[in-house]
Amino acid sequence: MSVVVPLSLGEAVEALGAYPGAMVLAGGTDAMVEINEGHRRLGHDGSPMTVVAVDRVAELRSYTIDRPRGRVTIGAGVTYTELLAEPLGSLLPALAEASRTVGSPQIRNAGTLGGNLGTCSPAGDGLPVLSALDAEVLLASSSGERRMSVHEFMVGVKRTALEPGELIVSVTVPVLDGRQGYAKVGVRNAMVIATASACVAVHAPERSIRLALGSVAPTVIRCPDAEAFAAGSVDWGTGTVDPEVAAEFGRLAAASSRPIDDHRSSAEYRRHAAGVMARRLLLRAFPGPADTAAPTEESETR
Ligand SMILES: Cc1cc2nc3c(=O)[nH]c(=O)nc-3n(C[C@H](O)[C@H](O)[C@H](O)COP(=O)(O)OP(=O)(O)OC[C@H]3O[C@@H](n4cnc5c(N)ncnc54)[C@H](O)[C@@H]3O)c2cc1C
Questions:
Q1: Whether the predicted model's global pTM rises above the 0.90 cut
Q2: How far is the CA of 79 from the centre of ligand 1 (A)?
Q3: Per the count of CB atoms within 10 A, which of 13, 139, 214, 262 is most buried?
Q4: In terms of Cα–Cα distance, which of 147, 170, 148 is closest to 66?
């Protein structure tokens, strides 16, 4: 087995051009588990296996904020810990919220957004947020670059649109104007893979409400019926939502899901949980006007 350690994006693309069957290794928090558990074989069609370790590629480890165009481009090698830190945490709060739920501090220090995309588990915590925000993925290979929506990228359970020799370079995410949030349920409170997950993101200038669900279908899904219903039913003027509207939003979300029974959960529980999370996230996104009452004398002197 040989390990190539490129120091630039050009070197990484070149290495993958030379060894299209190579395994890309970022933080290794998924890849090494797969190797240790024998789900990924060392060697490709009997040939020696090459690993391209991309954690020293500066272009993948960085991000750029384009304020005039209202978007952020995040290198595939940016870690969850970095997504939680400022300024990314404030610009993309649902992504920060999702990142906070990933594994442990050690996993968040090593695990990357590009690795979450590369694995493409329906339970990946970054993916419902990228879906709700309509993120775009940039791929590169020795034959050039291509861009696609995150929905085109996620093809199936742990299946992506990546071709041999292609590298995930970055993800471009619009900065929305409105509240957004992420929720996840699992069998315990921490260090847990999502049994079901949901992201709601509001973009007030367009009066759009996006809802993406994780772990309830082969890939992350959007819920267009629930989105259209909510956009036409919330009170945009006061920033409030009637609890009955939120309940119907939850019902439509549950109806969009296509979950399976497996060792983590029954399909019925997943569907129910998706509906509950969607309802709660919508209520959270439309809490009504902030309390503007003048401070009391007592509170002013504290
Ligand atoms: C204890 C533990 C807890 C975890 N908890 C969670 C959790 O709560 N939520 C969650 O979503 N995940 C969790 N994970 C899974 C994992 O941490 C994440 O999916 C993480 O984002 C993977 O990133 P990585 O950099 O480690 O990827 P790697 O393991 O290095 O790679 C993962 C896959 O992506 C490919 N890849 C990586 N980077 C690129 C690139 N730039 N271009 C092309 N392909 C690429 C690799 O070839 C591989 O197939 C957990 C893992 C462990 C071990």
A1: yes
A2: 10
A3: 214
A4: 170
